UniProtKB/TrEMBL annotation:
EC number: 1.1.1.35
Catalytic activity: a (3S)-3-hydroxyacyl-CoA + NAD(+) = a 3-oxoacyl-CoA + NADH + H(+)
Entry GO MF terms: (3S)-3-hydroxyacyl-CoA dehydrogenase (NAD+) activity; enoyl-CoA hydratase activity; isomerase activity; NAD+ binding
Protein known as: 3-hydroxyacyl-CoA dehydrogenase
Lineage of origin: Bacteria, Pseudomonadati, Pseudomonadota, Alphaproteobacteria, Hyphomicrobiales
Family: Belongs to the enoyl-CoA hydratase/isomerase family. In the N-terminal section; belongs to the enoyl-CoA hydratase/isomerase family.
Length: 653
């Protein structure tokens, strides 16, 4: 057996065929923490000094090559050697250094690989510089070495978007030199042996051809428009576009930009979200609780929501049985689902074999008993308590005792639905957001009696559906819609107090929301909320402030874009301020003797943010949400709150 040399707690090596095979073992993702950096530095020095060693292979233990710099070290004093220095030593090594990518090489991990003299990967590896998603730019040479390898436009596209590329694409882009057909490390040793003798090819010494401004605009235009309001993507474009400078100048600029951005509020917000996403599925009390196996999912109600859920479930490999009231509705649902799969096929998200496999796993029925094989049934029928209770009672009779029943209700009380069944412990809420095959957020509603393994199953299914699950207790509207109600209420108070819809929307869009609240209402249609307000009129607390402006709009037939007008007019489809709306608002103010005053953008933003955060605090106090960061995730992923502001709870902190 080869003798193992230990360079640090996380870096060790063996010598095979004269090649030093260095393995980074720093669970969970082999981040380049201080110990890894110092271990690598020592390993390189050892290789340089040992005459018997002819080359070096660097690889990772486990399923990741290197997940990047250690994000948990950000904000702490730097510990030497810093990553750029280690990377420069790799590139300067007199002996060939081969990166053997056993899995994802991200951020600093890819930057390290770029400085190696050869890159070979297993076919399942992935590469990317996702730093912009953390509000920073690559800080260890990525913006300078990647364009030298693949050209400025391709590097801009990857770095400014933070997109991850699979091994095959990375090979075709020339980020990788080779994909290992057989054993990765054997192939890497072979490559290192081939390279000995010749002077190693140094990425940093390649010439970066300057790109012309049209090419730069073409590569960056859409990405920067989408990243409106954020600094990192634009900085990434600037750095890559100027990579034809001497390497040292480019690296110095990159490092300075990285350090400035790393300490920004934007980066702190995005780091908060990175960790929040990973925390969200950790639920106290679920440690050691196994999820129930789920193979077949029943979906009741094949309207827009049910069809979206079906597409997500088919995509995750589940067998789906759809149930609807009539043969016609079931067939229509089936057609809609197949149509969505066809769209995935046309866009290349799905290949022909995948399409056929998914279509084969779908069946539809009108007979409750056909749901008998289901491990989980999700209902997405009309949001009416009587309808849902009736359905759950019927399901109780046809499914196995261990089958889990989930309601997708947005506003009803799932405890009442559960109580109507024979086994309330197997009921939970799975609140999808529309369109369900696209939106990542999934509120997992823990009812009074939900069993722990049922909750664990809800979370496991959510993960497999590639959703972002956030656990919520039972309250009107759960986490998201309850905060949204508080936010909407405050916006209506602002209207009555003197702001106009376009002023509120402009303040929200300036803050970073993709679209203002009133523009969103118009897009979604005003009538559902109107019907709800009418239903609630009888139980509304008369002492509570209630703004009637939206009711007046609906009474005037202004039901949103569908009716051609709502909070705005839409001549030629273009959102336009409508004096008729202003007149309605002014009339309501006059009726209540409210003297309108003007509001600055800052004031509007603060009032809306405060309203959201205050409702968030209430949800925490009531134990509906477990963590402030869960609330931030819900508002970012379900309601357009800008991620780079960290969510309403973070923004207020
Ligand atoms: N630093 C510190 N911790 C990290 C980390 C990192 N770069 N990447 C992941 N982790 C932690 C997670 O917080 C999580 O911790 P937990 O178990 O305590 O919750 C654990 O590793 C596992 O992470 P995931 O659940 O995300 O594991 P997956 O297997 O699903 O995904 C991954 C692995 C694809 C590597 C994913 O973790 C990932 O995308 N990581 C971040 C990659 C990234 O952004 N890298 C750039 C960092 S910045 C940088 O490199 C700057 C440089 O330019 C100088």
């Amino acid at each position: 057996m080869n003798e193992v040399t230990t360079f640090s707690a996380t870096v060790s090596a063996t010598i095979r065929d004269g090649i030093l095979v260095v393995t980074i073992d720093n669970a969970p993702v082999n981040a380049t923490s201080a110990d890894v950096r110092s271990g690598l530095e020592k390993a390189l020095a050892h290789a340089d000094a040992a005459p018997g060693i002819r080359g070096v292979v660097i690889t990772g233990a486990g399923k990741t090559f290197i997940g990047g710099a250690d994000i948990r070290e950000f904000g702490k004093p730097a510990i030497e050697p810093i990553l750029p220095v280690v990377i420069e030593k790799i590139e300067a090594s007199s002996k060939p250094v081969v990166a053997a990518l056993n899995g994802a090489a991200l951020g600093g991990g890819l930057e390290l690989a770029l400085a190696c003299h050869y890159r070979i990967a297993s076919p399942s590896a992935q590469v990317g510089l996702p730093e912009v998603k953390l509000g920073i730019v690559p800080g260890a040479g990525g913006t300078q070495r990647l364009p030298r390898l693949i050209g400025v436009p391709a590097a801009i596209e990857l770095i400014a978007s933070g997109r991850i590329a699979k091994a095959k694409e990375a090979l075709s882009l020339c980020i990788l030199d080779e994909l290992a057909e057989t054993d990765l490390v054997d192939a890497a040793i072979e490559a290192a042996r081939r390279l000995t003798g010749a002077s190693p090819r140094k990425t940093g010494e390649l010439t970066a051809a300057p790109a012309d401004p049209t090419e730069i605009d073409k590569a960056s235009g859409k990405i920067l428009a989408k990243a409106r309001g954020q600094k990192a993507p634009a900085e990434a474009v600037r750095l890559v576009a100027s990579s034809h400078r001497p390497l040292a100048a480019g690296l110095a600029d990159e490092r300075a930009t990285f350090l400035t951005l790393r300490d920004s509020r934007e980066a702190a917000a995005l780091r908060h979200i990175f960790f929040a996403e990973r925390e969200a599925s950790k639920v106290a009390g679920l440690e050691g609780i196994d999820a129930r196996p789920v193979v077949t999912i029943g979906i009741c109600g094949l309207g827009l929501m049910g069809s979206g859920i079906a597409v997500a479930a088919l995509g995750a490999g589940y067998t789906v049985i759809g149930l609807d009231q009539s043969l016609e509705a079931a067939q229509k649902g089936r057609q809609r689902i197949i149509g969505l799969l066809e769209r995935n096929l046309a866009s290349g998200r799905l290949d022909q074999a995948g399409f056929e496999a998914q279509a084969t796993r779908l069946s539809v029925t009108v007979t409750d008993a056909d749901l008998a094989p289901c491990d989980l049934v999700i209902e997405a029928v009309f949001d009416d308590l009587t309808v849902k209770i009736d359905l759950f009672r019927r399901l109780d009779k046809v499914v196995r005792p261990e089958t889990i029943l989930a309601t997708n209700t947005s506003y009803l009380n799932p405890d009442e639905i559960a109580a109507a069944t024979a086994h309330p412990e197997r009921v939970l809420g799975l609140h999808f957001f529309s369109p369900a095959h696209v939106m990542r957020l999934l509120e997992v509603v823990r009812c009074k009696e939900t069993a722990l393994d049922v909750l664990a199953t809800g979370l496991a299914v959510a993960k497999r559906l590639r959703k972002l699950p956030v656990v919520t207790g039972v309250t009107e509207g759960f986490i998201g819609n309850r905060i949204f109600s508080a936010y909407r209420r405050e916006a209506e108070y602002l209207l009555e107090d003197g702001a106009l819809p376009h002023e509120i929307d402009a303040a929200l869009e300036d803050y970073g929301f993709p679209m203002g609240l009133f523009a969103v209402y118009d897009m979604a249609g005003l009538e559902i909320a109107w019907a709800r307000r009418k239903r609630q009129a009888a139980i509304r607390d008369p002492s509570e402030r209630y703004v009637e402006i939206a009711d007046r709009l609906c009474e005037a037939g202004r039901l949103g874009q569908k009716s051609g007008r709502g909070w705005y007019a839409y001549p030629d489809g273009k959102r336009t301020i409508d004096p008729e709306v202003t007149a309605i608002i002014e009339a309501e103010r006059a009726k209540r003797s409210i003297a309108a005053r003007s509001f600055s953008q800052d004031e509007i933003q603060k009032r809306l943010l405060n309203a959201m955060a205050a409702e968030g605090e209430a949800l925490l106090a009531e134990g509906i949400a477990a963590r402030a960061s869960d609330i931030d995730l819900v508002m970012i992923n379900g309601y357009g709150f800008p991620a780079y502001k960290g969510g309403p709870m973070f923004a207020k902190s």
